[in-house]
Amino acid sequence: MAVLHRYGPFDTVAHMKTTVEISDAFLDAARKVAAQEGTTLKALIETGLRQALADRKRQGKFKLRKASFRGKGLQPSAKGASWDRLREMSYEGRGT
């Protein structure tokens, strides 16, 4: 298993060496992909991190849309009903 380490004076260099802890199987798979694509493990990891960060930036925060209906709450027949009964009621008159 790989382990995270940092090397060098961090405030004076643009790039630093970092060791990341990942499973041996994941590392082996990444090395194989890098070799097949004729690239380095470093380049493959940087590409993956760039993509993951960009995806997160594009997604933004999740916001649930308002989906409420006008009304006065549950129908009297639904108050105190079990989930099974509520499900039955929601499908009444729809299909066979």
Please characterize this protein's 3D structure.
With 96 residues, this protein is mainly α. It has a domain at 6-58: Arc Repressor Mutant. 44% of the residues lie in helices and 4% in strands. It has three helices and two strands; from the N terminus they run ββααα. The chain has helices at residues 24-37, 41-59, 83-91, and strands at residues 6-7, 17-18. Strands 1-2 form a two-stranded antiparallel ribbon. α1 (24-37) packs across α2. The longest helix is centred in the middle third of the chain and has 19 residues, at 41-59. It is elongated and about 70 Å long. The termini are far apart. The model has no long low-confidence stretch (mean pLDDT 82).
Structural features:
96 residues, Arc Repressor Mutant
The tally of helices reads 3
Strand coverage percent: under 5%
Mind telling me the CATH class of the domain at 6-58? Mainly Alpha
> Which structural category fits the helices and strands?
mainly alpha
Mean pLDDT: 82
> From the 3D coordinates, which CATH architecture of the domain at 6-58 would you assign?
Orthogonal Bundle
